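Researcher: Quick test of sequence recovery. Tokens follow.
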């Protein structure tokens, strides 16, 4: 049977992790996969999560099944984190999922079951959005998003394209920290998007993978919360991979907002039936630890302060790297890096230049020239900037 298959192409982001690990050069620099790194290049377990895991070990008396939606108290805590105090909780339902990707996947299936046919994705978007969403049997279309020349959002073009969407189409929006560009909607632009979605009857599907990595925990939820206060229905996929640093444990949440509690209940029953048919029940361990963090005032404060210091470090690295690039290039063409927020920016190198940076300088980034700013080496920003400027000058 397997002779029928041809090999699947490697995932471009995940494959980079392996290439980097195998590279013996001591000065190699990993700006590839989106994991937070500290100044030593490590991705530590957050102190509050570690403490919660200890408490979990002491307190947990069984590992029997929890259920298709995971832990209701974890889900309630996540509703608070994502939607805040002002949300109409009677219309929101939440299901713990295997990472943000698991949440995206089951919500895409729910959209397909609801007869949604077309999901609009930003151009560019996180590459894995495409297979995750198409696997549900819906089609995807692109809306323009990023102007590489200025490093800004092509907002007028985005709105013009979405005006061409049909009522009932789904619009996937990055809640904050756009992946791969780092260019984000401002408050006025979110308001305009909300107006458009409401007036055209479009359905928002928000991917919130980096809450707390952009402008702050509350600030990064602005778009989701605004939409939740305006639109009749929506779906949100949140990831805990980055803001709780529990990447491999796979924790996320799939949220839906219904027009009324009764419709929300029906849609939720369908969402759980999707989950049951795909993986049955989500993994528990890190979700249980996160619940402990979010229910314990002291641990919550510790987590928030560590998250904030990670966020600040990324902002400082952005500023330091933009300065270094300004010095090395004698131009302000990379200044957008300091204005962007989140883990990523695209530096504008061609795939051939990206390849050359990897081969000749040991600098790893995604082929579209996306860099993970958390991986920037604090003590070698000028050296790195000089390599990038030199390779990009060669054309
Ligand atoms: C990334 O964009 O690098 C992360 O979201 C990791 C992944 O799964 O692609």
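Model:
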């Amino acid at each position: 049977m397997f002779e029928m298959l041809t090999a699947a192409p490697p995932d471009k982001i995940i494959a980079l992790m392996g290439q980097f690990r195998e590279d013996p050069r001591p000065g190699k620099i990993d700006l590839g996969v989106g994991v937070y790194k500290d100044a030593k290049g490590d991705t530590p377990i957050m102190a509050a999560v570690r403490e919660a895991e200890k408490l979990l070990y002491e307190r947990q008396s069984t590992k029997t099944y929890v259920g298709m939606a995971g832990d209701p108290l974890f889900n309630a805590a996540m509703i608070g984190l994502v939607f805040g105090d002002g949300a109409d909780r009677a219309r929101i339902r939440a299901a713990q999922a295997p990472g943000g990707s698991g949440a995206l996947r089951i919500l895409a299936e729910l959209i397909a079951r609801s007869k949604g046919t077309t999901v609009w994705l930003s151009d560019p978007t996180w590459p894995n959005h495409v297979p995750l969403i198409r696997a549900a049997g819906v089609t995807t279309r692109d809306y323009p998003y990023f102007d590489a020349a200025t490093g800004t959002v092509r907002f007028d073009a985005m709105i013009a394209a979405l005006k061409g969407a049909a009522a009932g189409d789904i619009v996937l929006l990055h809640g904050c920290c756009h992946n791969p560009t780092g260019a984000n909607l401002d408050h006025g632009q979110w308001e305009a998007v909300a107006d458009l979605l409401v007036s055209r009857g479009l359905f928002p599907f928000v991917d919130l993978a980096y809450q707390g990595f952009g402008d702050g925990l509350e600030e990064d939820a602005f778009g989701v919360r605004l939409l939740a206060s305006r639109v009749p229905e929506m779906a949100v996929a949140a990831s805990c991979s980055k803001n709780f640093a529990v990447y491999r444990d796979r924790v996320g949440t799939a949220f839906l907002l219904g027009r009324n509690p009764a419709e929300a209940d029906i849609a939720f029953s369908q969402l759980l039936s999707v989950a049951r048919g795909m993986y049955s029940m989500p993994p528990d361990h890190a979700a249980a630890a996160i619940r402990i963090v979010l229910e314990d005032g002291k641990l919550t404060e510790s987590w928030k302060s560590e998250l904030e210091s990670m966020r600040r470090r990324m902002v400082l690295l952005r500023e330091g790297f933009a300065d270094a690039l300004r010095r090395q290039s004698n131009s302000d063409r990379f200044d957008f890096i300091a204005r962007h927020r989140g883990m990523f920016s695209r530096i504008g190198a061609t795939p051939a230049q990206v390849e050359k940076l990897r081969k000749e300088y040991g600098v790893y980034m995604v082929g579209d020239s996306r860099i993970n700013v958390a991986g920037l080496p604090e003590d070698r920003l000028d050296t790195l900037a000089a390599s990038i400027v030199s390779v990009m000058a060669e054309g």
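The first helix runs from residue 12 to 22.
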